[in-house]
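Dock zinc ion; give full complex structure.
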Amino acid sequence: MTRTTPARPWEVAAVVPQLATTARTVTRLHPRTGSPTVQDSSVGGPLLWPRDEPWPTCTGSHEVSSVWELEAVRAAHHVTVARWSRPEDEAHTPEEETIFDRNEEKEIDSPYTDPVPLLPVAQLYARDVPALPWPDGADLLQILWCPFMDHDDDIPAVHLRRRRADQVTAVLSRPPEPSVIELEAYWPAPCVLHPEQVIEYPALNQLPAAVGARVRAWQEDTGHHYNAFASAPGWKAGGWGAAAWHEEEPADPPHCGCGAVAQPLFTIGLAEWNGHDEGGWRPVEDADAEDRRCYPPVGDPTGVDLGDEKLQIYHCPASHEHPPVIARVY
Ligand SMILES: [Zn+2]
Ligand SMILES: [Zn+2]
């Protein structure tokens, strides 16, 4: 099933004409629980990875005192998914209770020092996100992260790999996995994607001062929050990236180490809609979806929960060889 953003409640560029030239295409990914294969774009799905290519690991220090066992996290997720198809008041079976009980935070005696195989976060085929940059004939972007966020520099360890899918002849069928992760919510649950291209605009704090002043005046007049309409919520690729909640502070665009202004590549967002959905982003096909599922959060079945923050991956337009810039957006 496709996912379709409703007609916009009002046209941003009609309110402030100077915004027309800032319109950018963003691909909303609309992850939904499923069983993607290596041939699919996915969140939390298997990667098309060459058998003879080393799997990336994180060797940073992970000063944590408790962990979750990945197998237990995965098993509990399967039970949760199975439960979604049953009546709300139906009790868990004893077997399900056992699986849930096993999935808990475990104290550890000493800091976790083993090298950590990274977890697949997403893979995107160019056919699904044509608006992204695809250098050197690459048609597949793979994103992995360390399932421990607690690094010395406080920056999540994110790894990008671009490749040509037709050059992967023998696929790694059982990639290494960490046995434990820092938090249950750092394991992206398998989701198929329903890519949809829409238009978005810069967040308020990314606008030139004069344009921002006009938008603020419009907010005063109407009582609307511009950011709610300008920027698509949820997981997405390209566009203007995630909008900050704190809209008053001017946002200095992140720079690559080479000095170039980095561009939004991938956003690990929050839910695609919440109770009131002011910006009108809830897909038409999900209009009747029940909101009773409080875990994972409504409109986001990936299970990834970074608190109130969104994670923004930027890339350097000067060279795809330059490492990504990672920003946390509140
Ligand atoms: Zn790490
Ligand atoms: Zn650069």
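Observed: Residues 1-30+194-330 form one domain.
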